[in-house]
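> example.struct
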């Protein structure tokens, strides 16, 4: 069973201005992704590009637009082992993801999470399978994943992340 976390829902401003409109309106304990309101879970289910924030080697946040996926109650971050963000994640396994509805920037979800497990592609074929699945989700193309760097023997790393806290805002 997943560890409990908090979902903090900002007040809805879709019907106009109100006092304290950017305050947290409601907090609830959750035990998994299934506890999310469907209007926010759709940001994970649809091909919404997330912005991944990790702390870089210079101590500043590094932001990367990435494809988003989850399995059970873990957020999945799949990246090339040769990329700087891979080492940054290993050095500081606390990540923040931002998913913004591409049709309404005032409908978003922020997820703070911590890496629970690192899986290397050469150790587990499921890393490649997950990459192929997300390739199809975001491009509509059949596997295999079509963006491997042909100039190197690119190996992937899958970070399985435990959710610590979620903040939600707005309506679709």
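> example.seq
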């Amino acid at each position: 069973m997943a560890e409990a976390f908090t979902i903090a829902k900002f007040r809805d401003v879709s019907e106009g201005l109100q006092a304290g409109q950017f305050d947290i309106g409601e907090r609830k304990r959750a035990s998994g992704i299934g506890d999310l309101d469907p209007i926010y879970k759709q940001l994970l289910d649809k091909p919404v590009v997330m912005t991944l924030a990790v702390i870089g080697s210079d101590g500043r946040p590094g932001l990367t637009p990435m494809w988003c996926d989850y399995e059970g109650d873990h957020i999945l971050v799949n990246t090339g082992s040769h990329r700087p963000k891979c080492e940054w994640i290993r050095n500081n396994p606390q990540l923040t993801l931002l998913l913004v509805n591409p049709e309404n920037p005032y409908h978003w979800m922020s997820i703070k999470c911590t890496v629970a497990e690192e899986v290397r592609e050469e150790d587990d074929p499921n890393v490649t399978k997950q990459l192929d699945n997300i390739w199809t989700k975001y491009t509509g193309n059949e596997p295999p994943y079509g963006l491997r760097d042909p100039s190197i023997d690119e190996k992937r790393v899958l970070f399985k992340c435990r959710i610590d806290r979620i903040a939600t805002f707005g309506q679709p």
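> remarks
The chain has three helices and nine strands.
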